[in-house]
Amino acid sequence: MEKTLNISMWQKRLEDFAKERDWDQFHNPKNLAMALSVESSELVEIFQWLSSEQSENLDEKSLENTTHEMADILLYLIRLSSKLNIDLEDALEKKFEINKSKYPVELARGTAKKYSELKSE
Amino acid sequence: MEKTLNISMWQKRLEDFAKERDWDQFHNPKNLAMALSVESSELVEIFQWLSSEQSENLDEKSLENTTHEMADILLYLIRLSSKLNIDLEDALEKKFEINKSKYPVELARGTAKKYSELKSE
Amino acid sequence: MEKTLNISMWQKRLEDFAKERDWDQFHNPKNLAMALSVESSELVEIFQWLSSEQSENLDEKSLENTTHEMADILLYLIRLSSKLNIDLEDALEKKFEINKSKYPVELARGTAKKYSELKSE
Amino acid sequence: MEKTLNISMWQKRLEDFAKERDWDQFHNPKNLAMALSVESSELVEIFQWLSSEQSENLDEKSLENTTHEMADILLYLIRLSSKLNIDLEDALEKKFEINKSKYPVELARGTAKKYSELKSE
């Protein structure tokens, strides 16, 4: 079954959530970017002492925490897109094209080098 | 017009992108969480020396950079959801309910206090 | 040979550095905290695709980059201590005591659990 | 009075702290970099909803939290320097020279532009 996310609905829900709490005063893009990065570090915290292998086999509690942190990141991302009037689908399309040209298959295969170092080989 | 994001399609695109480059060896959840947090700091970097007011009135170049960084965050989020078999829509629904109960309107109105400090008033 | 760091001298150097560039207008604690976290993500970026083992055997270039990023973090930390009039040595002493009591040897040995979960066993 | 930090002593204290808890197995550079970035986001969290002005006038509780988070960052930085055999004083000297040449007074005065954009004017 195809999974889709109704971005417009979530933008509206988060606008209402903030309005009801009079939080627009705090939700400028600078602060939202900070909050998003704090949530992404809470995601990192779950994994910081795990080995790579352990991170592929999370216990139930860690998987639930991971799911919650990912949701918080996505909520702030949608909120920020709403504030800045950014079309997320369009943003994905454009950035995905950029990433494909930054990391051409023939140069990037099997290496984790940054694109700026791929060129110089 | 309603904006929706086809998560299944993007999961598939990113799986193919990684497979073609033989990057699955790098894409364990631990590393993906790190990469996501690095992208979110690149977002923060755009705003670090701006005032709150300036962050609401980005010039064209900064807005484009912001759009790119948000896309990278979302790409890693979708990739991680694919690796951990997490349903993002469902995750949003559950976390949004939690956030509503952590921040009841009557207690949270007009304050940026953390939920753990709201209770103690 | 004992290594010491002259904090007062570095605080002064960084004050002069900012003053000469008229950067005090940007260096409020909020912005400095953001900048410090951006630098620490640049540190993380070096390690994001490395295995734990590889991170213990950095090549010369990666070790140099690591050294530079660690220096930037420390420079912002000293700058922030100067702005907030925080005594770093005293801060270390106090936090080290807290960490020792949060992680008693008998409970913490061999486990990476967070202190809040150690108690509940 | 001149403030100095005895780095060698703190490196030794942290080595003993880890050894007593059998934590060397977790303390590879990759994991330490992650932990350091998580602490720096805990620092950011204190400031995320504050205005710049408020961040210059922290209440007692926030200042104490800030001090604790800065200490944790510094503890991980010292721990990492010990693991990688990095001389922090020397690292500061070298990076400070680099920063001075990246941001020459005449070009950087009064602007928060990144060095890579200063050149192009």
UniProtKB/TrEMBL annotation, chains A, B, C, D:
InterPro entries: dCTP_Pyrophosphatase (IPR052555), DCTPP (IPR025984). GO terms for molecular function: nucleoside triphosphate diphosphatase activity. Pfam families: MazG-like (PF12643). GO terms for biological process: nucleoside triphosphate catabolic process. Signal peptide: none annotated. Transmembrane segments: none annotated. PANTHER family: DCTP PYROPHOSPHATASE 1. This is Nucleotide pyrophosphohydrolase.
